[in-house]
């Protein structure tokens, strides 16, 4: 009678370590347990995406137990230290993928944009591991939500900036707080214009990497991007010389920019300094309404914009439903829909008179 204890387990079963599975069996099974970072949109709920990505053969508790057992095991039956290190590394990666975005290492997600009469495209965005307060290293749901709506603004609240033969598309669009660059890169593709992506100096290297990573896509769709450091309220060391000449931009875009009580005033000042001083200039802002804190920050931003020397007033606004990923991806509270508020601001009066 054949001894079945050394046979590889069926594909839908996790191997038992007491059976001393081979290096090849362990590595193949660990790779199959990979959980891809979610890419969500306004039409498919994050809950649905996570269900589609879930491993159906075993519940999460069993998988976590399996991974933990591998990490704690000395794996003495494997042939070499290199094999053991590789298995431990893969098991650790699978564990971190199940502990929320903050526990993950570097990831790259590809964000799709559907055909709006000009062909589909997608953008590849690298997100380094999140450390400290470097929240700009994460792609926030609002960036994708607003990016998917950009084509609607060219026939809506921003139509006057895109009229053929009039202003045409703005020669340059400024994005404040670009983070990983998804919104600004999408704007260059959708609006076929030049977009300047900006953020803190510590965020700029990854931002520049993503601009380079997507250069062929942007160029192919008639856009252009450049990356520069711009710290709101910073000194000259924190601001690229290109911003020393003030009030250059007809259009500024910004998504999910408020995380601290100081941010509304800092952002409002940065907008006032960079936005052109004519009544046609516009600012497009998106702020998720996650809780009372973010709602309060939005209210403060509106007040600060209205206090500027040339007041900036909200001319159009709406809320769209969206999804965001933060925290433990298996926490039901994190799967609730988020209302993404957007507003278009303009100068309250002409300063040219």
Automatic annotation (TrEMBL):
<protein>
    <submittedName>
        <fullName>Methyltransferase-domain-containing protein</fullName>
    </submittedName>
</protein>
<dbReference type="GO" id="GO:0005829">
    <property type="term" value="C:cytosol"/>
</dbReference>
<dbReference type="GO" id="GO:0008757">
    <property type="term" value="F:S-adenosylmethionine-dependent methyltransferase activity"/>
</dbReference>
<dbReference type="InterPro" id="IPR029063">
    <property type="entry name" value="SAM-dependent_MTases_sf"/>
</dbReference>
<dbReference type="InterPro" id="IPR019410">
    <property type="entry name" value="Methyltransf_16"/>
</dbReference>
<keyword id="KW-0489">Methyltransferase</keyword>
<keyword id="KW-0808">Transferase</keyword>
<dbReference type="GO" id="GO:0032259">
    <property type="term" value="P:methylation"/>
</dbReference>
<dbReference type="Pfam" id="PF10294">
    <property type="entry name" value="Methyltransf_16"/>
</dbReference>
């Amino acid at each position: 009678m054949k001894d079945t204890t050394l046979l590889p387990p069926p594909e839908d079963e996790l191997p038992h370590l007491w059976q001393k599975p081979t290096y090849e069996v362990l590595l193949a099974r660990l790779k199959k347990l990979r959980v891809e970072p979610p890419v969500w949109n306004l039409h498919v709920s994050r809950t649905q995406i996570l269900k589609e990505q879930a491993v159906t053969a075993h519940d999460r508790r069993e998988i976590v137990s399996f991974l933990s057992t591998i990490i704690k095991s000395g794996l003495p039956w494997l042939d070499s230290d290199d094999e053991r290190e590789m298995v431990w590394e893969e098991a650790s990666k699978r564990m971190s993928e199940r502990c929320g975005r903050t526990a993950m290492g570097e990831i790259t997600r590809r964000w799709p944009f559907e055909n709006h009469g000009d062909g589909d495209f997608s953008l590849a965005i690298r997100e380094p591991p999140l450390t400290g307060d470097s929240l700009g290293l994460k792609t926030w749901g609002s960036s994708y939500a607003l990016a998917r709506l950009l084509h609607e603004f060219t026939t809506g609240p921003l139509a006057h900036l895109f009229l053929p033969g009039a202003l045409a598309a703005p020669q340059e669009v400024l994005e404040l707080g670009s983070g990983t660059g998804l919104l600004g890169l999408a704007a260059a593709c959708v609006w076929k214009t030049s977009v300047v992506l900006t953020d803190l100096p510590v965020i700029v290297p990854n931002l520049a990497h993503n601009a380079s990573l997507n250069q062929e896509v942007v160029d192919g769709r008639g856009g252009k991007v450049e990356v520069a450091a711009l710290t709101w309220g910073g000194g000259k060391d924190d601001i690229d010389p290109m911003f020393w000449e003030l009030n250059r931009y007809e259009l500024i875009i910004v998504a999910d920019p408020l995380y601290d009580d100081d941010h509304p005033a800092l952002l409002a000042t940065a907008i006032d300094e960079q936005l052109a001083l004519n009544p046609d200039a516009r600012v497009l802002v998106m702020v998720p309404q996650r809780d009372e804190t973010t709602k309060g920050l939005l209210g403060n931003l509106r007040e600060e914009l209205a206090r500027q020397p040339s007041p900036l007033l909200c001319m159009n606004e709406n809320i769209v439903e969206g999804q965001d990923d933060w925290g433990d991806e298996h926490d039901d509270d994190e799967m609730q829909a988020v209302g993404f508020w957007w507003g278009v601001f303009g100068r309250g009066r002409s300063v040219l008179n």
